[in-house]
Every structure is written in C-alpha cells, then in structure tokens.
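Much of our argument rests on the idea that a fold can be written as discrete symbols. In the encoding step, the backbone of a single protein was reduced to a row of integers, each denoting a local shape. We regard such an encoding as a compact summary of how the chain folds. The record that follows shows the chain in one-letter code together with its fold in token form:
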Amino acid sequence: MKSLSAIILAAGKGKRLGGTAPKVAREVFGKPMVRWVVDACVEAGCGRVVIVVGHGREEVESIFEGYDSGGTSIEFAAQDEQLGTGHAVQCAEGFFSKEKSEGGHAVLVLAGDGPLIRASTLRALADRHVVTDASATLATSVIDDPTGYGRIVRDEKGRFKAIVEEKNATDEQRAIREVNPSYYCFDVRSLFEALKAVRRDPVGGEFYLTDVPALMLAGGRRVEVIDAVPAADVLSINTPEQLMEVDELLRVRAESRATPNAGAGR
C-alpha cells in the first residue's frame, strides 16, 4: 500500500434527532460526531481525509477550521443531491485522480455519524486489506441483536459472499448475527470502477455502496472480511436517548484510558 486515505460520508440530515443541525455536527462527549471519526482516521495514519458534505455543509466545514490534523489533508466534497451512499462516494472521485492513475492506493469509506470508531479497528482493517491484496475489505461485527443491519453472508469456506439487507433477507439469513457496520477499505481504482456498475435501487431510488463488494466478487476480484468491530461500537445514534448512551460510553472509555485498570472487564 503506497498510501491510506479516507472518505467520510457526512451529508445526511439526521431528522430523527430533531433540530436543524446536521447529524454529524451534533456533539457527543465534547466533540461533534464527525470529529471523532476524523480523529480516528488521523490516528490510524490516513494521509488524506475527504469529507462528503451536503445538508448544513458550512456548519460541518466550520468544525475543522483550525483543526490540528498532524499533517493529514482535510478536504470537502459536495453531495448536492442525496442519492445514496454509492452516489456520495462518487462525489469524492475527483479528489483521487492521481491515486486512480497510479494504482496501489487504499481508501477507507466510513460513516460520519459513528463516534465510537477506534483507530485500532481501522488499522486492523487496513492491514488485512494490504496483506491479502484485496479489492475490498469489510470490517464486521457479531452482535446479539442484528435487527436493522445488513447481514454478512459467507460461503461454505467462510469467505465473503454478499451483504444482504434485512428487508431482502430470508429467515435463515436474518438469523445471522454478523453484520455490516459500514467499515470499508477499498482499492481506489477498483472502487470507482465498480461504482460505475451500481444501479439505482428500484425501491429506495438510491445508489448503494453495499452493492460494490458483490459486484467486485462477481468480476473476479478479491473481497475480504475481518470480524474487527467490537459489538459495543456498533450502537447507532438516531434518537436523543441513543446520543446520551454513546456519550456515556465515550466517557467510560476516556476514563479507562486515563486509569487503565478502571476499564477492566468492560
């Protein structure tokens, strides 16, 4: 791997949290959600972070005024029309012309509303991606209640087969507890090539990034899976109550780092 970059999807409104502020700009344990994600990318060694903005873009961009990135380039791509996660990633394509032409570059694709993300998880994801020379690598999680999440379907050898959204899953697939928390690492060139083949979902009318790994697999490319996301890090933030819960989890984590023995058993 010649370099590691990141694309962070931060264009959504987050209506269920109420108010007018962009979801990723909501503060949790003293920082906007998207700051936690960018901080993890910087700590993981990303040389460039492209944040895809849309709703309230000025507010999101202002979060990073004077931000100490330690040398990491922070840039912004605009998604003016909300047409899904696949479309959001395509909005960042112009920032990666050099990487596409050179080849050998890896890019993390992450949601901007996941403040529980850890740099150690991103490093494990990127390491597996490089070691296996994959076109795509997914970091997954095994959770007790997978309701609402896309399930990771593996073949008889334990290799990736597909991401199946719950609404499309069979009863057998719904019983799978390994889920997709949207932690991806892609070969840059392969990613943007595959995105050209993504078709608009006939029900939702959007272009979904989750279609990309299966398209790569069908094209003979390697797709890897690593169970690397702790179950506690998968909690979604869609309500004020969930926001408070994540705030508490981050507080406990911070206390555990400050006093290592305090977090034992958690």
Observations:
- The chain has one domain: 4-236.
- The mean pLDDT is 92.
